[in-house]
Structure prediction request, 212 residues.
Amino acid sequence: MSDILKSMRSYLEMEKESGISEYLFTSKPKDVRLSLVKNGVSHCQKCPLGKMRKNIVFGSGNINAKLMFVGEAPGHEEDIQGMPFVGEAGALLTKIIEAMGIKRDDVYICNILKCRPPQNRNPLPAEISTCIDYLYAQIDTIKPRVICGLGKFASQTLLNTEMPISKLRGNWHEYRGMKFMPTYHPAYLLRNPKDKKLVWEDMKKILEILNG
Ligand code: URA
Prediction:
């Protein structure tokens, strides 16, 4: 036992010397754990998007939410306000949430990327793999009952598949013991309003689980 403690101690001292001052021990309260993760993101320069952002867009909502929405990446308005889904697509997402009989403040909303890609281009695979640990930490802390993946990037990344979103959506998947429902991204719905009814079908499936 004392050997284990000694080697743990020297390992932690080594970590301290290399600049690590705090660990995300899971016994910390959720709000503390999330602020530690957020603090890490706020200094993040792990990819070139860090130099281009006005603000990081960490996530917003209820940290005890049963339902979490995961989008793709901040857009122009999100970058300015530092909040997810506050532009046109965000207004539609808010409408969808409210049509479910839920307040936007009662769910948690975040993205795969925490910084805006230039001209709102698609996230690059390298950006996703650099940023994804922040999202994993958010999910592992909040532990919602249901995660709704908004669009191809969120759904394919978290389900580790290349299956098109048109095939993924509407079916339940499993993500680390949580239920995962992929659906179309609200920005896609703004361009293809005829598919709103499909998203509504997906939201009804989510409500069955949340209310059941
Ligand atoms: N689209 C996203 O995927 N996320 C946002 O925050 C805004 C638009």
The longest helix spans residues 125-142. The domain at 2-20+28-211 is CATH 3.40.470.10 (Uracil-DNA Glycosylase, subunit E).
